[in-house]
Amino acid sequence: MAELPSVVLRDPSSPLTATYVPSAGMICTSLSDDGVEFLGQRRGLQAYLSDGKTLGIPILYPWANRLSANGYGLDGGAVTLTPGVGGVRTDPNGLPIHGVLAAYPGWQVTEQSKNRLIADLDYGSRPALLASFPFPHVVTLDITLADRALTVQTTVTATTSAAVPLCYGFHPYLTVPGVPRSEWTLETPPLEHLLVDNRGLPTGERVDWPAYSEKLGDKTFDDGFDGVPAGGVFALAGGDRRIEVLFTQGFPAAQIFAPGNDDVVGLEPMAAPTNALGTGGYDTATPGRPAVSVFTIRLR
């Protein structure tokens, strides 16, 4: 397969670079500090293109994590999702997961400079996408690399009278190079821990999660949280390196993913908790009032 064109952003004040591949779902494949990589490469870009196997920083859109069924209610009606059709992928339990834009080629770059990239996806003009999420809108990613930080601003603009549910998220696969996983320290602000059933779906029960700072050791996570404070900081540290993820705006929920079989930790900004598209409790972008969210990954 021919190599897809990529965009390399360069921080004007440091050796930090970020690499995006617009035609592969606007995925960020690298965040590198003078050649030292801070994003998990996992199975690589080809596996993302062919099988949706994630790496780097993919966008999970229009819903993040899993839904409880192959469909959801809509103003007295229902939307049916068909696995394998229109980008719908399923988890091992057969539940739709991570939306429909994995490696999606329809993004259009509208602005590009040394350290900034802006791209649009006109969701409403794509019938195959509307079949699984029938809310016409444009989603815009405005990405800036500056001061040793990658900032991603997402704007959802409704293009008809229909309000657009905000249930998306991002999945930064972070790694601390040169430091054993067991010695990484995971830090979170105080949160609400969402308890889940054996399929990974929230049961509705929540427990307080005090501010956390512990060595990862051999612990694993695939845990959802709500109640993220505006400006909340999550972090992964080891040796003399520290990676912070700032939930600046529009991300009240989070997922922490730390598998036992890969040296990565996902500190994932989420616009709504898992399965919100099925259960409700999400915000919306309404006509004339675009919804903006922002997160930043900062290297210390």
TrEMBL record:
Domain of life: Bacteria
Coiled-coil features, chain-numbered ranges: none
GO BP, one annotated term: carbohydrate metabolic process
One Gene Ontology MF term: isomerase activity
CDD domains for this protein: Aldose_epim
Protein name: Aldose epimerase
